[in-house]
Amino acid sequence: MDDSAVLSRLLRQRRSARDFLPDPVPPDVLEAILADAAQSPSWSNTQPYRIGVATGELRDRLAREYCEAYDASQEALGRGLSGKLALALGAKGRPDGDFSTHFPYPKDLLPRRRATGFGLYERLGIARGDMEARGRQMRRNFEFFGAPVAMFVFVHRGLREFSVLDAGILLQSIMLSAAARGLATCAQGALATWAGPPRRAFAVPAEYRLACGLALGYASQHRVNTFDPGRLPVSELLLAPR
To answer: Could you tell me which of 204, 84, 188, 175 has the C-alpha nearest to residue 141?
Structure first.
């Protein structure tokens, strides 16, 4: 199989995994993935990102801190207006992310977002009105879906949105390199809701902001990993000439 065929296969087979085996990723494999990703192109070769990689006890500590923050926020929101006010005033569980992860989706993008969300819950057997089950599934984000490796991508604020663009290229490189080695990944925007846990875990330079996380490991046979939300055909991505 030539290089183009291999790349096409990896791009088409890669999917976001949401349930992982506990099996550890060998350090040399993890190092090889990061070495591949380090070759990613960036704006004027500035490489305006830094990566925190957590395994073992550090990974477990981060999962605990994230789950504690999530549980506290849900408990506060469950109290209604008083809980929301408490969060706004700094109660435990208040989001401290560098970027807000809660915002209204643009109307033209909302249908695809809903189709993906509803399709995922349907695959999991979660009814639309079952808020308790949906909450449990959301909490899985903060356990990294059981993945043995959690990564955190920080971007340089001085390069503005272009550092985020470069981080996206970096993430794609990580995901494809992992897929080529039989590993699965899931990019996790939800982890940007709280920046406190990874900031306490890593020596993050002051000018860097948490953009997202990434779960990495070996995918389980759970049915959630068979979910495929599909992609738009190229014809719908291309702009018509004037």
So the answer is: 188
Tokens representing residue 108 in the block:
């033209």
The percent helix, strand, coil of the chain (3-state, each to 5) is 55, 15, 35
Q: What is the predicted pLDDT for the residue at 83? A: 73
Q: How many helices (DSSP H) and strands (DSSP E) are in the chain?
A: 9, 4
Burial of 15 by CB count in 10 Å (0-12 exposed, 13-18 middle, 19+ buried)? Answer: middle
The gap from C-alpha 124 to its chain's centroid, in whole angstroms, comes to: 19
Name which of 30, 33, 23 is nearest 176 in CA terms. 33
Looking at residue 47, its amino acid is: Q
Q: Write down the pLDDT at residue 89.
A: 65
Q: What length is written for the chain?
A: 242
Element (H, E) at 50: strand 49-54
Chain centre distance of CA 138: 12
What 3-state class would DSSP assign to 34?
Answer: helix
Question: How far is 195 from 199, CA to CA, in rounded Å?
Answer: 6
Q: Distance (Å, rounded) from C-alpha 21 to C-alpha 217?
A: 7
Q: Residue 148's pLDDT is what? A: 98
Q: Choose among 179, 188, 166, 164: nearest CA to 217.
A: 179
Spatial CA neighbour of 156 closest among 148, 166, 146, 147: 166
Residue 4 in tokens: 């183009």
Could you give the C-alpha distances from 41 to 32, 37, 47, 156, 177, in angstroms and in order?
17, 9, 8, 15, 15
